[in-house]
Amino acid sequence: MAAGGETLSYDPMEEAKEFDNSKIGVKGLSESGITTIPKFFVHPPEVVSNHKSSTASAGGIPLIDLSDAKSELHRPKIVQQISDAARTWGFFQLINHGIPVSKLDETIAAYRAFFDQPTEVKMNHYRREESHGVLYASNNDLYRSKMATWHDTLQVWMSPEPAKVEDIPEVCRKEVVEWEVHANMVAETVLGLLCEGLGLEAEKLKNMGYTKTRAIVGHCYPYCPQPDLTIGLSSHSDYGMVTVLLQNEVPGLQIKHGDGWVDVIPMHGTLTINVGDTLQIVSNGEYKSVEHRVLANPLKEPRISIIEFFNAG
Ligand SMILES: O=C(O)CCC(=O)C(=O)O
Ligand SMILES: [Fe+2]
């Protein structure tokens, strides 16, 4: 009876809350040397049974070179490529997007430096769901879907109520502020091309106010000792117009394509762009807002991704 009683009294939400209150984050938990993950991270078999991707057959998402985007001669071809990608995949990667590769590397390094800080330092920023300011938390799907996921997040709101610059952690403050300028520029370029792909003039989507709500979200997916039992980030589509994603070279992102999942292979120097729900709606369903997810990371090197969401409202 004692053994049965023990099982019955286990409440994953209680354990999850305790973990949350400890503020050590998933990275701290990973670094504590555990070899099995706490039960509140374990997802049902139907979620974790289809971790495999089908990249080989699908060929991967399109890679688009923007170097000639301003040339009158070459622009129509790029408009065609980018709008085909948005129609069939909802995702594409960009090279020669105008941001120096050194800037991408610096930004990733700055987020890495934030997540690499000791718990005592990071915990000063630890808080839950807020719609402005700065938020650092782990397993942030917990209170929405009652499912903990294997990553930590540092989220900085840029609008409508921007974070106070002094609230952005000092170790990555300069890079976060600078990244915003670069990511904005890419979002504007992409929206111009996507707009032309719908037969509209280049300013139309931009004028819908895609920058009204913006947040820069940095995720850290540390090593997971049982990656087949959990997930890095649950399947979802992005609300908003477009998302600009920068990642280090640790894989994990997958997108839904047909009946299967396709890996987004990280490529140094590239940015990944995806269509959000709002753009799907305003394009009358021409452009697809596609579900994506991140697998729990089986590698010792943490996966770092920096995402800027551009929303119209
Ligand atoms: O970390 C990633 O690569 C994807 C993150 C993502 O999809 C999101 O934050 O909406
Ligand atoms: Fe997403």
Automatic annotation (TrEMBL):
Annotated GO MF terms: dioxygenase activity; L-ascorbic acid binding; metal ion binding; oxidoreductase activity, acting on paired donors, with incorporation or reduction of molecular oxygen
Stored PROSITE patterns: FE2OG_OXY
InterPro entries referenced in this protein's UniProt entry, alphabetically: DIOX_N, IPNS-like_FE2OG_OXY, IPNS-like_sf, Oxoglu/Fe-dep_dioxygenase_dom
Keywords assigned by UniProt, alphabetized: Iron, Metal-binding, Oxidoreductase, Vitamin C
Domain Fe2OG dioxygenase stretches: 211-312
A Pfam family this chain is assigned to: 2OG-FeII_Oxy
Similarity remark: Belongs to the iron/ascorbate-dependent oxidoreductase family.
Protein name from the UniProt record: Fe2OG dioxygenase domain-containing protein
Native source species: Nyssa sinensis
Taxonomic lineage of the native organism: Eukaryota, Viridiplantae, Streptophyta, Embryophyta, Tracheophyta
